[in-house]
Amino acid sequence: MKQGLSIIMIVQNEASVIRRALIGAIKIADEIIVVDTGSIDDTKKIAESFGAKVFDFKWINNFSAARNESLRRASYSWVMWLDADDTVPPVSIDKINILKKNPPSQNAIYGFRLININPVNLDFVGGEIMQGKMFPNDSRIEFRGRVHETVSRSSREAGFELIPTDIVIEHIGYQNEKKVQKKLERNISLMLIDAGFPTDTKFFIFNVQGYNCFYSPNVMTIWRNNEYIGCCDPFDVEFPEDEERKRVLMVKRALIIIDQWEFLKKLKLESKREDELKAKDELTELNRRIEAAINKNIKKEEVFA
Fold first, then answer.
1. Which of 31, 34, 80, 170 is most buried, most CB within 10 Å of its CB?
2. 86-87/76-82 β-pairing
3. What is the DSSP letter of 281?
């Protein structure tokens, strides 16, 4: 395998931002692999103008599947993954170029400082995280997770260690409130699919007091950013068809779960007394079963068996 660095990206309709990512990428990459999951704008044309190798891949509601397709195309000894709304600042260029000259035989993946630039929702994304961005092109390393995909688990299983560095990657994907909300809704939908909901499930999504409520036929789950907090009991078979009446009923039921969750959270913060913490038992059996499904990937059909 050739010594050098393959940069891999997955994209869809990123014409407004990808140029900025590629301007930095061409200064460090020996090849750029771009896997497009269905763009209808100029994303692919822009990538090709920077010399990137562009491949099509059908979107199947799974980020790891697309990432692994881009990884499969990489031909150099080191791999670094970027999002279209990532940028490699000038201060990081020389450091990455030095790093990629190391032989990849060492059992290390390199963590870079991913800094979110001017995010509108720090509770959702945070300001900075250490992210495993650069790793040897090794068949044992793969992305895992339908959403929030990383190589962390596969690399650990293969004996690789995360080595933190001071190399910075800047991320500009959380600066627009509407886009952030859209990403949040997409991520939750994918987590519910992971929990057993059919891949073609259409969720009716609405917001109550900053909480995201996802209704699919007969079930409503409630989320605070990416955190699952509860589920309403199944709706009656004769659930009203009128959209306004339906919305009113869903909001009322959502508020019950939200108030309960906030009460329990307050208990956790204010007291450790066992008798107060037993208030957790007020959660319905269905809530506990749904939470188990989401956390352990139990199929939806089993939840209601």
1. 34
2. unpaired
3. G
Distance CA 62, CA 293 (A): 18
**Alpha-carbon distance values, 1 to 4, 138, 208 (Å):** 9, 10, 53
pLDDT, tens digit (0-9, with 9 covering 90-100), for 159-171: 999 999 999 999 9
d(CA 46, CA 42): 6
pTM over 0.85: no
CATH architecture of 2-171: Alpha-Beta Complex (3.90)
Each residue of 84-112: pLDDT tens digit? 999 999 999 999 999 999 888 778 999 99
The ranges of the chain annotated as CATH 3.90.550.10 are 2-171
Per DSSP, the residues of 118-131 read S-S-HHHH-SEEEE
β-strands 161-171, 53-56: how paired?
unpaired
Q: Say how many CA atoms lie within 13 Å of 14 toward its Cβ.
A: 25
| d(C-alpha 44, C-alpha 19), whole Å | 11
